[in-house]
Write a sequence for this structure.
């Protein structure tokens, strides 16, 4: 049996919720139909969690947080546990990659690229489990004053559909390293790999209730998690619109902590001295990788007027040659858009680009060639002569649509680059070292890439400024999200 058939065979039974170390049915008796976007048909069904199931998961997570098996687990044992989760992910890499590709529509190659860092982040945070310590503080009174680094408690984690496994790993790994317990709500569009990850955690020996996974709809299960008064923290990746609802829910319930990884409209700024072949490659993958469904996509190419024409013609050729199609086929470079909702959204932005007067260089429509007619495909699209005031220069499209803008000098480049409500990442291409570092300081972004697009490592912090979010994931910085400091005074 091929791996695809094996994966399909395992999907015959509806996926259950993972609560308290057990697979359980949703109380409502309802199901989510999970789509395979490349075929435009149902791939699987999973039980749909509602507020009652979320409550059950929070109760399990609270009990596990208090239970000695977890609360008093030696740091070195937690370290080994996280290593075993990483090993488990690697053991099931083929299955996870296929499942992700089929459910999200990304190419199988891209799905494999997600599995590698998903395992890696568990190993990275495994190391931190034994290195979380407080400090002793000299105070005027002469007493012994020290701090304890404690876990936050029960963490609600809400993740989107573009990197379902990777986002779950980014969230669960640091939370467990710090001794928290977790209730993860995957996106209703892509709940499948998170459920496999739950199984991996169980097989690795994670105590019951430490990790719970509750697929459900945002306004139902997500909202219930955000409003639950026994959840200490919500970690969220998704849209600024939902982020606002989560902040409101926190304010109206128990003031739980909230960390936010949101969207972007990230600029890739090109000065005339840059290596244009390298820029074209970076800009191409920066917008078309993962179908542009990337929070850190380089959705605005901001090119100096002297080089814009040459760059646009290179990119136009590359986009026209790009192989769009079956995500599981080895030669495919771009797969299917995740959902009908997202397809409509992307096509709507393409129409707005045309309407507002941007110049269409490539794509600009749905791709219905041959078998693609039944799936959700969009041609890689490039608009030139985009003005900063246009909708496609301001709003996040989250699809394979590049907006090309130009500038005449460095000050204007900074002004345009910083001229959106977002501030996730930015890139600068130049051979001038002084300019590169000057730009790194001036750009409003949580991450700046110089002479490269994209760069992720479990050790390097990632996150945004402005409406791209609060807090940093990965690296030592994420430990701040999942610990709190207690100060102890001892009269001497
Ligand atoms: P979304 O905000 O609609 O959904 C994200 C998650 O929130 C899903 O699990 C959804 O079910 C849940 N949700 C929706 N409504 C909710 C509510 N009322 N209460 C609680 N939870 C709710 O976003 P999306 O469309 O699924 O994802 C795309 C967005 O995510 C884009 O804006 C993108 O930039 C962002 N994103 C950011 C990063 C990052 O690291 N910064 C990574 C990936 C995606």
């Amino acid at each position: 049996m091929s791996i695809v058939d094996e994966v399909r065979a395992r999907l015959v039974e509806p996926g259950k919720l993972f609560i308290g170390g057990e697979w359980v049915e949703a109380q409502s008796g309802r199901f989510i139909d999970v789509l395979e976007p490349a075929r435009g048909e149902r791939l699987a069904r999973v039980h749909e969690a509602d507020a009652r199931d979320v409550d059950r998961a929070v109760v399990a997570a609270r009990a596990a947080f208090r239970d000695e098996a977890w609360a008093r687990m030696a740091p070195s044992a937690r370290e080994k546990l996280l290593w075993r989760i990483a090993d488990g992910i690697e053991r099931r890499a083929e299955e996870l990659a296929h499942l992700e590709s089929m459910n999200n529509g990304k190419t199988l190659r891209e799905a494999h690229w997600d599995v590698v860092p998903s395992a890696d982040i568990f190993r990275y945070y495994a190391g931190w489990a034994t290195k979380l310590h407080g400090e002793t503080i000299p105070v005027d009174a002469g007493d012994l004053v020290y701090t304890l680094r404690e876990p936050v408690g029960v963490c609600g984690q809400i993740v989107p559909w573009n990197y379902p496994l990777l986002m779950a790993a980014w969230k669960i790994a640091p939370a467990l390293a710090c001794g928290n317990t977790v209730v993860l709500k995957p996106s209703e569009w892509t709940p499948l790999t998170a459920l496999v990850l739950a199984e991996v955690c169980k097989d690795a020996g994670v105590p019951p209730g430490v990790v719970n996974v509750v697929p459900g709809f945002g306004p139902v299960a997500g909202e219930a998690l955000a409003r639950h008064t026994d959840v200490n923290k919500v970690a969220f990746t998704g849209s600024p619109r939902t982020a606002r609802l989560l902040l409101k829910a926190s304010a109206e319930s128990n003031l739980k902590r909230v960390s936010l990884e949101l969207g972007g409209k990230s600029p890739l700024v090109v000065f005339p001295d840059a290596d244009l072949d390298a820029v074209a490659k970076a800009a191409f993958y920066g917008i078309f990788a993962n179908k542009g469904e990337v929070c850190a996509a380089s959705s605005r190419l901001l090119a100096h007027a002297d080089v814009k024409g040459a760059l646009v013609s290179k990119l136009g050729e590359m986009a026209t040659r790009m192989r769009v199609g079956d995500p599981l086929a080895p030669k495919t470079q771009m797969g299917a858009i995740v959902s009908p909702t997202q397809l409509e959204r992307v096509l709507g932005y393409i129409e707005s680009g045309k309407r507002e007067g941007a110049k269409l260089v490539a794509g600009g429509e749905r791709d219905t060639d041959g078998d693609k007619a039944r799936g959700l495909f969009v041609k890689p699209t490039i608009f030139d002569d985009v003005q900063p005031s246009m909708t496609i220069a301001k709003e996040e499209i989250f699809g394979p649509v590049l907006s090309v803008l130009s500038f005449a000098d460095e000050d204007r480049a900074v002004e345009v680059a910083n001229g959106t409500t977002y501030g996730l990442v930015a890139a600068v291409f130049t051979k001038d070292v002084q300019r590169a570092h000057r730009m790194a300081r001036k750009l409003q972004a949580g991450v700046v890439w110089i002479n490269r697009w994209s760069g992720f490592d479990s050790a390097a912090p990632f996150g945004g400024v402005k409406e791209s979010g609060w807090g940093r994931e990965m690296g030592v910085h994420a430990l701040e999200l999942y610990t709190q400091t207690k100060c102890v005074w001892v009269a001497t």
